[in-house]
Structure to design on (679 residues):
């Protein structure tokens, strides 16, 4: 078997070299990305808390927005006062996909408020494409495979598998150096193709295409800014997002079966 | 035509995917192309020893494997029997009780200092006040200068924009422009297993010790798992193109060695795994020829031997070799190829103790003979973490003593007799 193609793919330092972000861009990206993630986290927790307490819409909006803004601002504080300083210490920067997902959900929550549903529990009025309670699960008349085969579901499974592969690679348990491959110039194009293939084959369907759009935009932003690390795997998937995808896939399985 | 056509028609989606992938591929290609000058002609792939920025960048684009260079060939002196001609302790920063993991750096011939040395020092290993200390060996006075700190974790954290919990092993390198680079172990949220490798570059105009200052380039992106658990310990292997190969290792649960390549300006070029054996760490790269290198490694197992991996294509592919016959008490080794057929290794030679530090020599990398014992003491004494440098025909070795100070030795080389000449 001719393995020359594989050699060329895994040989890290032959041919093109990595393009890495500048230190200033990395620092800005770290603060900006944690700012968005913290804002989403704060808004989600505050909205749930307000919803459970049955707070009036105005109070819920003010409290939730205040928490979100405060947490977002905390990432931009100087030095050790910044939340991003400590989160970066432990986890470096989140992936672009995670940041985009948080931004989309934050915007969706804001949209719900405008629609007067601020106090509705999360998931009770699901977003199209959010994957919370996908529309295709409303009726169980369709075959299971059909109910499963949405682009976002396929992408979620691919994300879980990719994370496992990267984890095994981290511990040198794969025969190829997968993480190093993420520095190569063609990796972004190949990954974009992988992200879009489920949509190409299945269309958006009734579930929307949030995952597809997020992955595609994450790859595009990576190509332009090289954030967060210069490695395309770090741009599309981080360990926290990978763990969240496990939960997402488990929920879909439970709803489906 | 309604925009929904683009997701209802599979052909429209195919067109969109092709266009998107083509656009991303073209943009990536253009970005890489923009930073890659035209390759040199085939007969010019071997860059000079100290290249300019342009020649170094060009050499990288040529389809050749990295070529290592001999330190002894620079001084054009043959390697003979080694014997200690001077030794002592490196001055410690005032008030610091702990010192560990020194790294020697050969300075340019015109520099007032022959050597620089970097190590970490503080109240205790892994203490919050540990910083990277440095000293230089002055050619005129033949003395080590007073030590000073050159890297502080609070300052480093402020420069990086995120925290550094502890500082550890430093490794120094001089780039094609004569700038000092430091690669420093910096821990995240945990112990040494949560380490990252921070790349710092000299920010001061001079690399004299009193002016020496550093600014971080970046944390090297080496792992998907929050970029944790890669550490650096041993000296880089210099390349003919002015770049170098830096050995590092992973150590979360299992250990394995990896090599990183940098160009003459210190730009990160890529990574190649040396071995997947899960108990080898802290590789020391030893050249046998320009493209044939050995990685000699610490073995964390009980009753371990020095592990070996070999490459014949300049580090692009590695294969495991049987362990050396030399015992290794889970202790760092330092090695270097000084000249063809003259490989040197500093290592702790007894099982279960770092109380004896030996210097051994080999012609082929397999059979090693002890040249001399560098240091020995009671079973609980420690002489560990050796570092080596070759300067003007002399071998310099530094090592940790009882985790409290850094000792050094200078070993002169009597030229070997050749051709029947006296």
């Amino acid at each position: 078997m001719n393995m020359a193609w594989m050699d060329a793919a895994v040989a890290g330092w032959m041919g093109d070299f990595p393009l890495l972000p500048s230190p200033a861009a990395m620092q800005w990206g770290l603060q900006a990305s944690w700012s968005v993630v913290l804002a989403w986290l704060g808004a989600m927790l505050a909205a749930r808390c307000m919803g459970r307490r049955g707070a009036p819409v105005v109070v819920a909006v003010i409290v939730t927005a205040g928490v979100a803004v405060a947490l977002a601002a905390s990432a931009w504080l100087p030095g050790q006062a910044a939340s991003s300083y400590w989160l970066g210490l432990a986890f470096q920067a989140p992936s672009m996909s995670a940041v985009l997902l948080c931004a989309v959900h934050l915007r969706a929550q804001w949209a719900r408020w405008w629609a007067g549903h601020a106090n509705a529990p999360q998931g009770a009025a699901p977003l199209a494409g959010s994957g919370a309670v996908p529309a295709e699960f409303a009726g169980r008349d369709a075959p299971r495979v059909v109910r499963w085969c949405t682009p976002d579901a396929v992408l979620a499974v691919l994300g879980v598998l990719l994370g496992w592969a990267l984890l095994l690679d981290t511990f040198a348990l794969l025969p190829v150096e997968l993480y190093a491959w993420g520095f190569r110039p063609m990796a972004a194009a190949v990954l974009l193709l992988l992200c879009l293939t489920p949509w190409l084959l299945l269309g958006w369907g009734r579930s929307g295409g949030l995952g597809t759009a997020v992955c595609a935009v994450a790859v595009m932003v990576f190509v332009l800014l090289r954030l967060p690390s210069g490695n395309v795997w770090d741009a599309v998937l981080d360990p926290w997002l990978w763990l969240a995808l496990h939960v997402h896939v488990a929920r879909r399985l439970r709803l489906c079966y | 035509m309604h925009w929904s056509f683009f997701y209802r028609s599979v052909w429209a989606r195919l067109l969109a995917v092709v266009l998107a992938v083509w656009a991303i591929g073209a943009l990536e290609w253009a970005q890489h192309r923009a930073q890659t000058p035209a390759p040199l002609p085939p007969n010019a792939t071997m860059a000079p020893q100290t290249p300019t920025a342009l020649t170094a960048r060009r050499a990288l684009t040529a389809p050749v494997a990295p070529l290592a260079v001999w330190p002894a060939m620079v001084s054009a002196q043959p390697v003979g029997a080694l014997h200690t001609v001077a030794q002592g302790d490196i001055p410690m920063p005032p008030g610091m009780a702990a010192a560990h993991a020194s790294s020697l750096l050969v300075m340019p011939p015109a520099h007032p200092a022959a050597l620089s040395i970097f190590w970490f020092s503080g109240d205790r290993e892994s203490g919050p006040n540990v910083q990277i200390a440095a000293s230089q060996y002055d050619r005129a006075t033949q003395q080590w200068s007073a030590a000073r700190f050159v890297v502080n974790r609070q300052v480093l954290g402020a420069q990086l924009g995120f925290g550094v919990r502890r500082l550890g092993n430093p490794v120094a390198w001089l780039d094609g422009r004569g700038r000092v680079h430091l690669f420093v172990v910096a821990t995240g949220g945990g112990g040494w297993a949560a380490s990252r490798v921070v790349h710092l570059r000299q920010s001061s105009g001079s690399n004299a010790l009193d002016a020496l200052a550093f600014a971080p380039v970046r944390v090297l992106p080496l792992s998907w798992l929050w970029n944790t658990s890669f550490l650096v310990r041993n000296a880089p292997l210099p390349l003919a193109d002015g770049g170098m190969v830096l050995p590092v290792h992973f150590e979360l649960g299992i250990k394995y060695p990896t090599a990183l390549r940098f160009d003459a300006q210190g730009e990160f070029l890529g990574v190649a795994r040396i071995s997947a054996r899960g108990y080898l760490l802290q590789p020391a790269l030893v050249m046998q020829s320009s493209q044939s290198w050995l990685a000699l490694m610490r073995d964390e197992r009980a009753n371990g031997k020095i592990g070996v991996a070999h490459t014949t294509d300049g580090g692009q592919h590695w294969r495991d070799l049987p362990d050396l016959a030399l015992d290794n008490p889970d202790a760092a080794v330092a090695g270097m190829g000084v000249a063809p057929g003259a490989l040197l290794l500093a290592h702790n030679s007894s099982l279960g103790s770092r109380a004896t530090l030996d210097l051994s020599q080999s012609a082929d990398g397999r059979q090693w003979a002890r040249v001399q014992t560098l240091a020995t003491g009671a079973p609980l004494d420690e002489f560990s973490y050796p570092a080596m440098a070759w300067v003007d025909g002399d071998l310099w070795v530094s090592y940790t003593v009882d985790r409290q100070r850094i000792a050094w030795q200078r070993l002169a080389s009597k030229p070997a007799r050749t051709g029947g000449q006296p």
Remarks:
- Chain A touches chain B through 66 residues (CB under 8 Å).
